[in-house]
Amino acid sequence: MPPLNTPKHRNPASIWIGVSVVFSLLAVALMSGCGDNFSDLEVLPTESYMKKPGDFLGNTYTIRAQIDSQVKWDKLVGRILAVIPESGGARLPVFVPENVGGNLHIGQRYEMRARIEAGGLIYVESLRKY
After folding, report:
1. Overall fold of domain 46-129
2. Can you give the pLDDT at residue 33?
């Protein structure tokens, strides 16, 4: 009979299963809770922005919009798109850097994380289809 105070030997397979479950849960938590969190951002007030874009410099907003047209594209820089915001108002020009965009098509709808830069430029930091 083994002594009472000795540790039990664990099956190596059960240890690996436990480790893989922990890593799987961690991966799911990171994918759902981190990254481009749009929900904590204020929606860009498009009417106010159109009247006085300088009042919004440096701020970050979410914009849900449909691509209306591509105004300009440069393969080293990115694109300028005209989008129609879901919140209403006039078409907005947005800049999408080449490393953010991917394949963008007229008519597609995106939720965008955007920062208002110098000159009132709407600079898209990240986006996702909806």
Report:
1. OB fold (Dihydrolipoamide Acetyltransferase, E2P) (2.40.50)
2. 45
Q: Tens of pLDDT along 5-57?
A: 555 555 666 666 766 666 665 555 444 444 556 678 999 999 999 999 999 99
Domain ranges across the chain: 46-129
User: What Å distances lie between residue 86 and 41, 50, 91, 92, CA to CA?
Assistant: 15, 15, 10, 11
Beta partners for residue 70, in sequence order = 81
| Amino acid at position 3, single letter | P
Tokens of 39: 């929900």
